Amino acid sequence: MTLAEVRAFLEALQRADPEPRSELAYADPFTLLVAVVLSAQATDVSVNKATRGLFAAAPTPAAMAALGVEGVAQHIRTIGLWQAKARNVAELSRLLVERHGGVVPRDREALEALPGVGRKTANVVLNVAFGEPTMAVDTHIFRLGNRTGIAPGKTPRAVEDALLARVPPELLRHAHHWLILHGRYVCKARAPECWRCVAASWCKYPEKVAAPAVKR
Among residues 28, 44, 138, 161, which one is catalytic? Predict the structure, then answer.
């Protein structure tokens, strides 16, 4: 995909959804950070169900640290890897209080030093909470980068670097959500719904799927 085609592809997604939003429920940078940590290998829907009670009980790092591992675990047993996630959430909350005065840092290195926070999670927090033009590459964006030709790469980091280099600066902040939502609902892993893709004209996928026949 040429740079002009990258722009046209993203502008088509922009017209369809001018102000994309995360589907995780959160109130501030702290609750966003916790929600993103919990979302690994879990759906946003399942995380939102779990965090409703968790955030009511512990809306701040100090309150979450006070809950402790067992207290956090009681709220998140319905999501995958809940044991490890409970430990990470309790400990990252303690460290936020100890190292950062209970404030989520606007700094990649500081974020990635917290338990359970990798590059993708840090990118989401920097983008959504602080408006930074970062690109968090999840399975959806990795698939789209390669399938559509917008940013091919053999690793998530390669796709991230390609997107940062190829996406027009003024579109970069929202590109993360446009691509995630497009991959979640249209350009699906097993059965892409190419017939209703607003950006199909610029997509390089050679096996575009036609609309299913209407039964009469």
Answer: 138
> Which is the catalytic residue, given 49, 107, 120, 161?
120
Integer Cα distance of 41 and 122 in angstroms: 16
> What would the two tokens of residue 28 be?
């501030």
Side chain identity at residue 76, one-letter code = I
Is 120 marked active-site? yes
The residue ranges of every structural domain in the chain are 3-20+135-202, 29-128
Task: Supply the CATH classification number for the domain 3-20+135-202.
Answer: 1.10.1670.10
Tens of pLDDT along the chain (216 residues) come to 899 999 999 999 999 999 898 899 999 999 999 999 999 888 999 999 999 999 999 999 999 999 999 999 999 999 988 999 999 999 999 999 999 999 999 999 999 999 999 999 999 999 999 999 999 999 999 999 999 999 999 999 999 999 999 999 999 999 999 999 999 999 999 889 999 999 999 999 988 878 776 666
Cβ proximity of 53 and 45 under 8 Å: no
